[in-house]
Amino acid sequence: MQKTILLVDDKKLLRDTLIDYLGNDRFRFLEAETGEIAIDIFREKSEEVDVVLLDENLPGINGIKTLRLMKKINEKVPVIALTGELTIDIRKSFIDAGAYDVQAKSAIYEKLIPSLEGALEGKEPSAGSGESDIDFEKMAEALKNDGRWEESALYLREAGMEQKTLGNLDKAADYFEESITRYKRAGRTTKAKEVEKLLDEIS
């Protein structure tokens, strides 16, 4: 039996690409190009929707606001957020608002299907955290174990920044070096170079 995905993104090309990738044989798709349209569809058909794929950067109300409104309508439907620029703050904001998972668009073709399957099966997200006091190293390892190298590198960068602030420069350097390695493994050379600059500052 087909599962229904509400796909919310203002770029038709991305919607079409994701539909082709995920497959019309397995999923039925409802499409929305703005948060407002998505809310209208969700209000009418939330009982039919099995999962929502929600872009962070939308015209009108953004992805976070759209998610919060969806949760007021039907909190049981899992929402996977998609973002072009994944940061700790963006991830935390979505998780705090009730997202099942947050995916960097650069990695969705590797990571989206496992996350979708977990959401559809009712599994708890393996690396989600809405805690205000984040253990960056622990999160980095959890994400690495999921094969989510870019996100893991992001948390190691934050761990390095934290240690730098505390004056633990050797520890900060270790985190930065591993962050660079993981960014490169994820194919994110620009991000790796950004961390290399941070490393140079304390070397």
Nutshell version of this structure?
By secondary structure, the protein is α/β, with parallel strands linked by helices. The protein contains 9 helices and 5 strands.
Write the CATH fold name of the largest domain: Rossmann fold
Radius of gyration: 18 Å
**What is the H level of CATH, i.e. the homologous superfamily of the largest domain?**
Response regulator
Quaternary structure: single chain
Q: Roughly how much helix do the residues carry, as a percent range?
A: 55-70%
CATH class of the largest domain: Alpha Beta
Average pLDDT figure: 89
Going by CATH, the architecture of the largest domain would be 3-Layer(aba) Sandwich
Count of alpha/pi helices = 9
Distance between the termini: 57 Å
In total, the number of domains comes to 2
How many strands, which pairing sense, and closed or not: the largest β-sheet? 5 strands, parallel
What does this structure look like?
The chain has 203 residues and is of the alpha/beta class. It has two domains: 3-120, Rossmann fold (3-Layer(aba) Sandwich), CATH 3.40.50.2300; 136-202. 57% of the residues lie in helices and 13% in strands. The chain contains nine helices and five strands. The chain has helices at residues 12-22, 35-45, 63-73, 88-97, 108-120, 136-145, 149-166, 169-185, 189-202, and strands spanning 3-8, 27-32, 51-55, 79-83, 101-104. It has a five-stranded parallel beta sheet, sandwiched between helices. α2 packs parallel to α3, α7 runs antiparallel to α8 and α8 (169-185) packs antiparallel against α9. The protein is elongated and about 55 Å long.
